[in-house]
Prior knowledge:
mainly alpha, 5 helices, about 75% helix, Four Helix Bundle (Hemerythrin (Met), subunit A)
Amino acid sequence: MSLTEEERQAIVFYRLEKAQQSMEDIHKVLPLGVWNIIANRMYCALYYAASALLIHDGHKVSTHKGVISLFNFNYVKDGPLSKEDGSLFFHIFAFRQGSDYDDFIDASEEDIKGYLPQVEALIEKIISLINNK
Length: 133
């Protein structure tokens, strides 16, 4: 089943809102030092933004790894995003997986403060790509 233009735009808007809400959540809990939660929210924000871009451009997305793969194939491989952007998305996914599901792996303040500005910048790039199409 394909989406109507109105449905597609509604989903894109909703996912961008979810990305922005995830970033707001991060800044609310940052002073609490709940690093694993923040790692989770960083990944979710990237996932929502990337899936919004893919849906905006007519791609069907269903899994987290599928979103990462399609994102890299369509926006990183030949541009307009850099290989570093693609690596960051995959790394944040792996980082979140480890901090959420693996024993004895916890995010730290140093990890978060190192990645947070990069994640915010990538989300802004993604939003810009959506707004400029």
